[in-house]
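Ticket #4471: structure export looks truncated?
Reporter: QA, pipeline team
Priority: medium

Steps to reproduce: submit the single chain below to the structure queue and open the exported record.
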Amino acid sequence: MKFQHSNKKIYQKLGYSIDQEGILTRFLREGNAWKSHLEHTKQWIRDAYAHKEYSSIAIFGSGWLLDVPIDDIIRDFKEVYLFDIIHPLQITHKYKKYPHVHFIEADVTGGVAKKIYDRITAKSHVRKQSLPQLTQTQFSYDIPFDLLVSLNIVNQLDILLLEALEKHESVSEEEKQDFRYCIQKNHMHLLEQYNYCLISDWEKLVTHTKTRHTHSEPLVFVEPPAHTHHSEWLWNFDSQGLYEENSKIDFRVRAFRS
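Actual output as written to the record:
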């Protein structure tokens, strides 16, 4: 196992550690309600490399590996690169015996998180820029991958950053929409450089427990990939109505592969 560290202090202050812990807590609470979604996701990843002569794979947003067919991937690839902004210690410990599994801690936006951190901590050398200007950067890594998997992070790239920023300054709806669009568009451009597999929550479905009325909220603000294999399914995310008061939450998940 190889491990590359990021600046954990910054990312912890932006809330990534708490968010990651929350994911595991919800998984343990939901039990079988998540089973179908996790199996759909794992199979979509397997199908992305079936009958292909790929030797290396990168997974962006590997996290707890709940939705990753990790045992198959370890068996099927010569080099496995797991990217996340912070890796759970339990996961790195569990897979440290595999020399071809590499844990890389990195901000796959190309450093937007650091720019937001500098902005909210009022670093003297940071010039005020519009939020879209902060996204004018691109992630790169000096090792090529045969397959890149973007795993449930497209709609997550902006959320914690905007939440952190809004604690320190007022952000208009227009600014937030522009920021989301730019950061998601950058990610799509990154995927297009590789053979890729993209899986993401695309739409949030909120059902009010009293009225049974359901309304939807978009989560991805860029056009989906064209000319690719695709699928979609529903993720019963919050079967117990504990995520939002008086509501149950489902996500419409969309999956693509080149």
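Status: closed, not a bug. The export was complete when the record was re-opened. Leaving a note from the reviewer for reference: The domain at 2-198 is CATH 3.40.50 (Rossmann fold).
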